[in-house]
Specification:
three-stranded antiparallel β-sheet; 2 domains; Aminopeptidase; eight-stranded mixed β-sheet; alpha+beta; single chain
Length: about 250
């Protein structure tokens, strides 16, 4: 699937707007996200283009993270244009981890993955929506951090399926830079396999369609087979993979 350089930049900017860090800087064609939480996208540096980067940017980015009293983390697409940069990171004792896929789909196709009946949508997250990130089977620190970054997102809606006031499935969609994007998908451990996540995805895609957004993207960990199967049924295909690069503590 082809994608333009402008789309790559827009997706990265939309990601930073949706998974919003406490602070954001831009230097030499990179977005630098700074956050005290644990969400990688909210505390890593990502290039705005998939072309050869000035290797001197590594030191400049490291200096900015040091100024924020944070360990530097790079989020780099696994593409030919950035291979030299990755080799330079390896030479500085950075290690590659957490391979993730950026995927895209047609909004109308995603809308047809399931019925959106019964999905509640709000402009801000309430306690029930947040609790979907803190239930059995989820790391509470990770869940709390993810909910917090999404709550800070620009132009975001929050969807959930609830029973007796309890959110058994949740997710969010953000709109910006010409894109709709899906984030923070969660399903209660004891209710998986019931297509709850598909209903949430369909509801979020319907909102994107109503806003005139024809394309929607998401990011999914490469080893999350259940999520990838859902997104494949919804019509998503991979644009590019990326990995996080960090130095040993």
């Amino acid at each position: 699937m082809s994608i333009s350089a402008a789309d790559i930049e827009a997706i990265e900017r939309a990601t930073a707007a949706a998974v919003a860090p406490e602070a954001l800087e831009e230097i030499d064609g990179w977005l630098l996200a700074f956050d005290s939480g644990v969400v990688g996208r909210a505390k890593s540096a990502a290039p705005l283009r998939h072309a050869r980067c000035d290797l001197a940017a590594i030191g400049a980015i490291e200096a900015r993270y040091a100024a924020h009293r944070m360990r530097p983390m790079f989020r780099v697409a696994d593409v030919d244009g950035l291979e030299e940069f990755c080799v330079a990171l390896q030479a500085r004792d950075y290690c590659r981890d957490r391979p993730t896929l950026v995927q895209i789909a047609d909004t109308d196709t995603v809308r047809g993955v399931a019925s959106a009946d019964g999905v509640e949508v709000a402009k801000s997250p309430d306690a029930a929506w947040i609790s979907a990130f803190l239930g059995e089977g989820f790391d509470p620190a990770d869940g709390a951090s993810r909910a917090k970054t999404l709550a800070r997102g620009a132009d975001t809606v929050f969807a959930s399926v609830r029973e007796d006031g309890v959110a058994i499935g949740a997710g969010a969609a953000s709109f910006g830079h010409g894109w709709a994007s899906i984030h923070g998908m969660r399903t209660a451990k004891y209710r998986r396999g019931e297509r709850i996540a598909a209903r949430v995805v369909a509801a979020l895609a319907e909102i994107a369609r109503q806003r005139g957004m024809q394309r929607i993207f998401l990011q999914v960990e490469a080893d999350n087979e259940a999520a990838k199967a859902l997104y494949r049924r919804a019509g998503f295909a991979t644009l590019w993979p990326y990995s996080y690069w960090t130095q040993a503590a």
